Amino acid sequence: MYILEGNDRRVQWLHGSDGEIWVWIMGDSPGDKPYEQISEELMAERARQQAQKEAEELWKQKEAEITKKFRDAMAKEKAKIVAEKWKLETEDRKAAKLMEEKIQEELKKREEEERQRGEEQIRQQEELRAKELYLSLKQAQQHSQHSEHEDQEWKEQLRRSKAADEERSHKARRARDEYRRQSLRAIQKGKVAGLSNLFKGTSLNNEPEIKLNSNNPSPLMTLTTSVRKAWERPSRPISREILIRWFKEEQLPRHAGFERNTCAIAPWFHGIISRQEAEELLMNKSEGAFLVRVSEKIWGYALSYRLQSGFKHFLVDASGDFYSFLGVDPNRHATLTDLIDFHKEEIITSSGGELLLEPCGQRKNPPDYSSLFE
Length: 374
Description:
single chain, alpha+beta, 7 strands
């Protein structure tokens, strides 16, 4: 309980009979409803209130129409009677008055009948509208839960990818440190010439080969400078330009994105497109349709798959010397095409039973992968 007295603000807890702080937990008491039931009742009540509000507005319009209709009809009939009977004798005027009253009663009766029909019609529309609103709220809730589940799967795949990247970076650092130690040891033992012969004829990034002479007093410094000029991949993709360079320098030599043993680009291959763009391409496809796009999250790809009612996205690690799904399939493949062909016959996950049945091609001209092959 929050208490405010003047400038004195404090929190005072309620205590039970046992002297402990009193706490109520939904679901512990015998009469408590489960969360799912409460959620269903809240959505139904919300839909009913919205439908009732709309029905009230609709009835106001309907009632105004009925009132105006019969008011105009009454005025018209009265004017007609006055025009025909006003000049007649007293007896005729009495007859006219009786006729007027009779017509008024008849019109009121018809007005009431029409009001009842109108109210019944509005009531039926209100019930239908309440059902429509409830279904809409239910679908929104299901879609939100489905999206949250997909986001959790995606985050888990990304976490595993980051862990794999960190492990590879750690191994690479250890390899570099070992190389430096071996190089320094060779220099200290006077075997610089032998070390240089290991790299004779090797040109990194089209640089001239390393030669030892009087103008190059430090062979290790020369070797380090040459390596720095070569392609050094960041720990993760940081821009579209870096992704394009990675693909051209590491993936094109491995024939990624091409059909087997040909120079034709595979019909399932796409460039650097977003998850939303992939789902739009797959929207009107049948279950089993798929495409492969360059991932913006890891050094690799994302395989987007069409379900019967939704989509799945799998990360494909391509940072090493093989291609494999992150977190869902231990199989490693020499090429990206090998991975795709393998899962045309073998499911990706046992729980989902995903088979790659129909490649989803391009809609744009030029294709969305054109920047990768320029």
